[in-house]
Amino acid sequence: MDGTLIGIVAFLAVIGLLAIRVPIAFALAGVAAVGAFCIFAFRTGDFMPDRAIRPTSSLVFSNFFDLIHSYDLSMIPLFVALGHIAYRAEITTAIYHAARVWLAKIPGGVAMASVVGCGGFSAISGSSIACASTMGRICAPEMLSMGYDKRLATASVAAGGTLGSLIPPSVLFIIYGIFTETSISSLFLAGVLPGLLSLAGFLLVIWIWVRQKPGDAPAFTGEITAAERRQAAFAAWPAAALFIVIVGGIYGGFFTATEAAAISVALVTLTGFLQRKLTLAGFWAALRETGIQTTSIFLIAAAAKIFVAFIALTGVAPAIVGAVTGAEPNVIVLMGAIALIYLALGMFLDPIGIMVLTLPLMVPLVESYGLDLIWFGVVVIKLLEIGLITPPVGLNVFVISSVVGKSVPIDRIFSGLLRFLSIDILVLIIIMAVPALSLLIPYSV
After folding, report:
1. How far apart are CA 285 and CA 267, in angstroms?
2. pLDDT value at position 39?
3. Cα–Cα nearest to 179, from 315, 36, 45, 361
4. Whether the Cβ atoms of residue 128 and residue 385 lie closer than 8 Å to each other
5. How far apart are CA 92 and CA 135, in angstroms?
6. Residue ranges of the domains in the chain?
7. CB neighbours (10 Å) of residue 218?
8. Got the DSSP string for 107-169?
9. pTM of the full predicted structure?
């Protein structure tokens, strides 16, 4: 039986299983196991299942073992724990409150503070969903109680939450680095400038929105003293220190990304207890949440590793690379087609699922054109970030909807996100057209 045909059928089977809501880990591992069994069973031309059991088992268990024992994978529980502990220690909320105080007098200042708070949370947690969930509980109800337009109040937090994908540390960058065998430290550094550009773009959207419709963001009528500003800024120092440790430490070559994660967890735990904002109960709750989230990510990553090994066995990737290069499309056409594929998948699938499903095909194709995998990683993460707020299955939108309840219908949140999606597409074009934006920092180390 032709391996390429089996590979194509396997891709279609995975997409079909995901469409009927089969958990992605089971879909990937199950299809890979069945597909590998078929290839080994038909290796001699005749169907010989007894000869397929051992090699199929070896493919499944050896790849599962290799992935789980990956040193780089230890970053995921560390950074996930960092975000949960920082939240319990009120370090992440301090970022929002500082931005809230400093931006209060600016029209739309609370919405801007929400985006800045999301950016600060992203520089600690590395998870877009966690960012949207946490900041949504803090920011959205406050804006709604102040009389902000419902679309602006919810869309600004949903869009800001996507920054967790791009601003380091990022769980998606870790998974991309493991599967493409690129430097995770370099990927973190590559995401800094594009992440800040995205944040600036969201602030610009809010500024233009409020200038066009001042009634959507009621003006702040209170009084904020210089002492209150200084106090709010000082209260946010742990978050700034953590960002310096993670990015500055990696950029300066003082330690690796994994070491940065471990040091940051130790620092945030110590700071929380010393400030008496982190309790033992809160600490154990953060560890429990970390364990649940990490287990889910590990299962998906392990299943993806098995699926990648199966795809390599089918030979479908070289066949697709040969077909595409034979058509001789230029780089612009190629990247445009890749972007459309990711944007289309982002309308229906979650970011990790899209990544592990597409990377086995996209990476060989990109390498055949001599494109930089670090730059391509930033492009992919930006595309996945856009998918988080793209209808009909924008995960961040449903997270925010669960926070605000029935007071804001989902279609209202999506309508408010159209402006943010427009700036996201513009930033994506800039990232694709100017690779130096992503490569300047990692290649200057």
Report:
1. 18
2. 83
3. 361
4. yes
5. 9
6. 72-294+435-444
7. 15
8. TTHHHHHHHHHHHHHHHHH--HHHHHHHHHHHHHHHHHHHT--HHHHHHHHHHHHGGGGTSSS
9. 0.83
DSSP string of 278-333, one letter each residue: --HHHHHHHHHHHHHHHHHHHHHHHHHHHHHHHHHHHTHHHHHHHHHHHH---HHH
From the centroid of its chain, how far is CA 264? 20
Q: Helix, strand, or coil here: 249?
A: helix
Radius of gyration of the chain measured on its C-alpha atoms: 23
Written as one letter, the residue type at 5 is: L
- For 196, the 3-state DSSP assignment is helix
Look at residues 141, 211, 98, 119 and name the one whose alpha carbon lies nearest to residue 403: 141
Separation between Cα atoms, residue 420 and residue 204, nearest integer Å: 9
Q: Name the average pLDDT for the chain.
A: 83
pLDDT tens for 121-155 read 777 776 777 777 777 777 888 888 888 888 988 88
Q: How far apart are CA 351 and CA 129, in angstroms?
A: 10
Q: Is there a contact between 154 and 413 (Cβ–Cβ < 8 Å)?
A: yes
